[in-house]
Write the structure tokens for this entry.
Amino acid sequence: MLLDNFDETRARQRNERRIEDAKRGNSAEIDKIRREAKADAANIAVKHKETPSRYVFVYKTTIKNGSPKAIKSIDWDYIFLERGTATELGRQQFTSEEKIAPGKTKELIVTITKPPTQTISLTALNKNERESLDGHVIVVRVDYADGTSWQRQ
């Protein structure tokens, strides 16, 4: 996932707060804030041309609690396999502190800057490279709210 608009998002949120504050005042202040917001956007666009974009990788899985106990946390691995050979190319390990009631489902999401495998360059992760990978999730450990746990063998 490309995260090249972090600065724009931060500036937009700041300007939205300023506009909300100005709404209690006069419209001249709101117009001034809008002009400044346009100038901010132009400055940010120039900054992005001068520096490379930042990338992040988003890992998601959906977990359904099939046990009669509430889940407190889950250790899970996202494994990258070479398509066709099923050779493991990389593994990301995560711990999600999520409360999941019995019978309920929850999506776990982790965002990190580390690329999926060491064999793939961050800036060269294009469509062709993504098509050569398969990924899947393995639940390694589940800690329950009652203090018990389940461990993968």
